[in-house]
Amino acid sequence: MEDSRKRMAYIFAKHKAEKLKSFYIHSIVYFIINTFMVVFKITRNLNNGETFNEVFFDLSTFITPLIWGILILIHAFSVFGPNVILGRDWEERKLREYMKQEEE
After folding, report:
1. How far does CA 56 lie from the centroid of its chain?
2. Residue of 62, 65, 83, 63 lying closest to 73 (CA atoms)
3. How many CB atoms lie within 10 A of CB 61?
4. How far, in Å, CA of 71 to CA of 94, rounded?
5. What distance in Å separates the CA atoms of residue 99 and residue 18, rounded to the nearest whole number?
6. Rounded CA separation 40/47 (Å)
């Protein structure tokens, strides 16, 4: 029984580490891609004769980073926030269920 508890603890720790790694990768990709996109749009529109204020305050320049930023916040909440819907209790019950099925 002690072995299965250690195994479950390991599985939870591994799952949490994978979720954290996924969030970090998502954040890095977000910053790299959106930085290039915003710089490209600003540069392109400045070359088309628009003023910096027109370019900077244009919604199309920042709509993708804004929507993607909201998704990053949701991802962050799923990683760092409380497990409201499918919390740790649910995970533990499912793990016990699957482990019991494997033992049989």
Report:
1. 27
2. 65
3. 19
4. 27
5. 21
6. 11
Per the CB < 8 A criterion, the answer to whether 20 and 79 are in contact is: yes
Residue 30 has pLDDT above 60, yes or no: yes
pLDDT in tens, 40-93: 999 998 898 888 888 888 888 889 999 999 999 999 988 887 765 566 666 777
Distance, in Å, from the CA atom of 23 to the CA atom of 30, rounded to the nearest integer, reads 10
Distance CA 61, CA 41 (A): 6
**DSSP states of 28-64:** HHHHHHHHHHHHHHHHHHHHTT--HHHHHT-HHHHHH
Q: How far is residue 19's CA from residue 34's CA, in Å, rounded to a whole number?
A: 22
